[in-house]
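Q: Got a minute? One more chain.
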Amino acid sequence: MIYLRLIAESFRFAWQALRANLLRTILSLLGVTIGIFAIISVFTLVDSLERNVRESMSFIGDKVIYVQKWPWSFGSNYPWWKYFQRPEPNMREFRILERQLTNDAGAAIFADKNNNTFKQGSNSYSDAILFGTTYEYNKVAEVPIETGRYFAPQEVDAARNVIIIGQEVGQKLFPFSSPLGQEVKVRGRKFVVIGVMEKQGESMFGLPNFDQMGIVPYGAFAKMFDVGPEGIGSTIAVKGREDDPGLLELEYEIQGLMRNIRGLRPRQEDNFALNRPEMATQAIGGFFEVVGLAGWVIGGFAILVGGFGIANIMFVSVKERTNIIGIQKSLGAKNYFILFQFLFESVFLSLIGGGIGILLVFLLTLIPQEMMKISLSASNILLGLGVSAVIGMLSGIIPAVLAANLDPVLAIRAK
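A: Always. Here it is, folded:
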């Protein structure tokens, strides 16, 4: 009970001090507000960016290994001359992997071509992506169908002219009717629309965009384009199992099978690349760490200034209330009561500054964004309040100790 009374009494003193010197308090808390705003806004942007990148990468799958000609690289000095004579993965290699792999959860081969024009009557959609793949691609990566359906195995095996289109394509070609069951012409060939994908919105870092895409069976794609060594390259995608952490078993198995298929000797280097989405995530993660560190540095200086401001308020508050402290101690108030009273006031003031900074970040998240959805997470809110509380405690500890150790007789005589 005594602790609840202590908290209530401390809160009352803190509120009275804030109201009595409102302008001074606001100016002093400005540093904490700016600091917390800088830190939390940076972390919110980083979290939102990372989440949107992961959502954009859902098209290329999670826990997937890609067998390709070119290795992925995210730095400078890419040794392209080592790779340009490598053969492209092909359907024969895919069929062998599909039959012989034991550590996979599904495999598919796909190829894509940009800058296509889809037509329907007098309507057309330019700069579309045409994507050809085999049936099990929906096991490798997410293909979110909003209306209609995914391919049937017979449609893919027979290379039928059926297509799944993105939202933007559907709205452009069929503004006043449902696309399902209607025909779309691509490079002079007619395709029947069997599905429309969910709206994705603009993707990050130039990754494939569902909204601007049409997906067809791999065989139908190969009829329209030269897929092979001299034409469009293909990619074999293999989905890993949940019981294979790090996909090490799957990677070793794919590597062994591909070397055997291509007849490589033991001392010969691989003439294929095994790429993973995690490689892109790790490269982007380094950028996130730098941005986060910059946020801490910028916000740290502002918080440091705010901390000195709060410490100044507390020293002034101790000076102004020295007489009251003497009366409280003469009436039996313990040192910890005085200490807690001023420490609580310091933390309370700092939390107000931090709370205003978090509120400003929240208001920024309400601004609609086409490119990226920004949201303030509970963890970032707790981080902001926690940093504010720590700054308040550090700023108020010395004034609180000085107040708690005042001699009651001298304190009562103070003017």
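A: The longest helix spans residues 277-320.
Q: Perfect, thanks.
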